[in-house]
Design goal:
Shape: elongated
Oligomer: single chain
Number of strands: 9
Strand content: 15-25%
Order of helices and strands: HEEEEEEEEEHHHHHHHHH
Strand order of the largest sheet: 1-8-3-6-9
């Protein structure tokens, strides 16, 4: 789900909320975590600290990277899939004490907040996690202040990022392609992950890159295949699979269409 920045600002400006707790967790690479739920009585923010992952709430996937914060509502199904590196994240819980009628649904909503600059937020999250270990009352008071400062940074960053939204979204799609080019990526999957209409994602992508997403992915896969043909002795069929093509005959046609050479001719000419 997407959210308008002005709605986010109004939600926090008109609501009475209380910081409750925070924790940091790490999920190892290439793992799938299921059968968990978000807090029953609290909402929260999932803030990535290192690495990337696919974080799903009630079956809706979000690509979590260094520019994404996720808001989770109460009692939601969680599914986390990590890739080739460990993923470390923080969870900050808060409880809503008073809400305007128009925002009561926020307690049961999940949405991503896209940001350009996460560093000020990460600095404050680190302070929060350290202070969270102290049981004295003054530290508990400081925790509330730090949490509100984090909210302020999130809102400020969201406002600033909104102006560069198009470039940011396309950059995130490109980064995702670069990380998962060996997988079967479709426009509909990208649209679901990044919560953009399929037609709009194609339009934005072509506007920024001058290519359709399919053409861009094809050229990127071919560039990866070139590297493998130069430095390895892998069979053409294995190289095809390594860059996302299960049919090596189709891969060879794509490669020749893009480079004007067959994979074997390219290897012969460029092998190191």
């Amino acid at each position: 789900m997407a959210i308008q920045t002005n709605d986010l600002i109004e939600y926090f400006a008109t609501s009475t909320i209380e910081y409750r707790n925070a924790f940091q967790a790490t999920q190892r690479a290439n793992k799938l975590d299921i059968n968990r739920k978000t807090a029953f009585q609290m909402c929260g923010f999932i803030i990535p600290l290192q690495g990337t992952a696919r974080f799903s709430l009630n079956g809706v996937p979000y690509h979590m990277d260094e520019q994404t914060i996720l808001h989770a509502g109460k009692n939601m199904d969680i599914k986390i899939k990590t890739y080739d590196e460990d993923w470390t994240y923080a969870v900050l819980h808060y409880e809503t004490m008073q809400l305007e009628e128009k925002f009561k649904h926020f307690e049961h909503e999940h949405f991503a907040i896209e940001l350009d600059n996460m560093q000020p937020i990460l600095t404050k999250v680190e302070q929060l996690l350290l202070k969270n270990l102290s049981p004295d009352h003054f530290s508990q008071f400081e925790l509330k202040v730090i949490f509100m400062n984090i909210l302020q940074e999130i809102v400020n960053s969201a406002r600033n990022s909104e102006y560069d939204f198009t470039l940011q979204q396309v950059s995130k799609v490109i980064n995702y392609m670069h990380a998962h080019y060996e997988e079967n990526i479709s426009i509909s999957e990208l649209a679901e992950i990044f919560h953009i209409d399929s037609r709009r994602i194609a339009s934005l992508f072509e506007k920024i890159t001058g290519m359709t997403p399919v053409h861009y992915l094809m050229k990127y896969r071919v560039s990866k295949a070139k590297d493998l043909l130069k430095v390895t002795d892998l069979p053409i069929s294995e190289i095809a699979e390594a860059v996302g093509y299960q049919d090596h005959f189709y891969f060879s046609r794509v490669f020749k269409k893009t480079t004007a050479q067959s994979p074997s001719a390219y290897r012969k000419e460029n092998a190191r």
